[in-house]
Request: fold
Amino acid sequence: MKTKILSISLLLSLLFTSCDVVDNLFTFYISDEASFSVNSGLPVNSPFDAPTPDVTTNSTAEFENNNTNANLVKDVKLKELQLAITSPADKTFSFLKEIHIYISTDDTDEIELAYLTNINTTANTLYLICTSAKLDKYIKASSYKLRTQITTKETLMQKVDFKANMKFRITADPL
Reply:
């Protein structure tokens, strides 16, 4: 009886490990970036949408570079979203209370991509918390829209420019 339990446990362990190994063989990353600005004079403690331009994807070429195509992509997740202040050079995120970034396309509903709340830092770079949303439809599209909602805890005296660097984890089917 102990031999059967040990054999079944070993077989299940091997099966799950093999699936992870196969997934890793067909996994790669795509990076995108978006820049946007926030003007001075925003209301304090009220959410405000910062206009963010559409992001043109290069996903078809990225898929081809990784020996796959959009039809074989089975899972896309955001693994990292870094937000940096690009101007003014000495500005930090001390003014920011929270930030939420949403993604959509013309053909898909808007969903939350990443966020950070209770921000308390004097750095000029932040790493947002990525949601676990499935992003296949968005990354396979030729472009997607980002909507950035921020809440400040102090009045901005000058325009602030941001750059968002996003890293997506792509897993494709082997066949």
Observations:
- Confidence is low (pLDDT under 50) at residues 18-25.
